[in-house]
């Protein structure tokens, strides 16, 4: 059953929350030092992750009290079972943040009946802000970014791929031999590495044609970028059988996937 949602209001809340969280993240990023701890799965977490999560969660719970909220930094939210929900990764690319590489993002998405239909991806260190509008079409806003006032926005669309010369993007921190072997099946003009959910956005803007991910991710890592890509005319599919990539899976864990522009001649695994 579809939720009765005011998408215009939702995207105003998402955008403001992402910018506010990004501002706080950059305050910590600019400090001489910040605390880094290991979570139970050995992945890093910083005070920036936790501060951003607190800001975003507070805004979302006030604005949408009836929608389930799943967020990476609140383990008790991972036990929910839902097909329609809000999902947040307050700082995707913590490794990039810790190493001060800039490829980290704030991610907020709304999943409806298993499909990420609205989302925002904000890369504060890169000065790039991507989101779906009230109608579900994707845009990029030009900075500087004001929480209260929307700046100049322009529609983004996937490119028209040349299968003899594809632009491929892959993970910066999680690249492996299996991913390289899969990419080798394609005619590649350029292969770039990027961190976090920015990879979805590079496909959404036509800066890349193909993003394969043969590794562990969670739904909060992908939902917002997936929504932006879908709103720009792109697709995300399961790696193993090219079936639709859905959300609300047990534990919110993802399988392997392929994000791509229409027209890419996909190779079966």
Strands, helices and their partners?
Elements: H1 7-29, E1 36-38, E2 44-46, H2 47-63, E3 69-71, E4 85-92, H3 94-98, E5 105-112, E6 115-123, E7 128-132, E8 138-141, E9 153-155, E10 166-171, H4 177-183, E11 188-194, H5 198-204, E12 210-213, E13 217-218, H6 219-231, E14 235-238, E15 253-254, E16 257-260
Parallel strand pairs: 3-4, 10-11
Antiparallel strand pairs: 1-2, 4-5, 5-6, 6-7, 7-8, 8-9, 12-16, 13-15, 14-16
Please give a handful of descriptors for the protein shown.
single chain; 269 residues; alpha+beta; 7-stranded mixed beta sheet; 3-stranded antiparallel beta sheet; 6 helices; 16 strands
> Describe the biggest sheet?
7 strands, mixed
Taking strands numbered 1, 2, ... along the chain, how are they ordered across the largest sheet?
3-4-5-6-7-8-9
How many helices does DSSP assign? 6
| Low-confidence residue ranges | none
Which descriptor suits the 3D outline? globular
| Oligomerization | single chain
Report the portion of residues in β strands.
25-35%
Q: How many beta-strand segments?
A: 16
Helix content: 25-40%
Radius of gyration, in angstroms, nearest whole number: 17 Å
What is the element string, with H for helices and E for strands? HEEHEEHEEEEEEHEHEEHEEE
Structural class: alpha+beta
Q: Give the overall pLDDT as a whole number.
A: 92
Distance between the termini: 34 Å
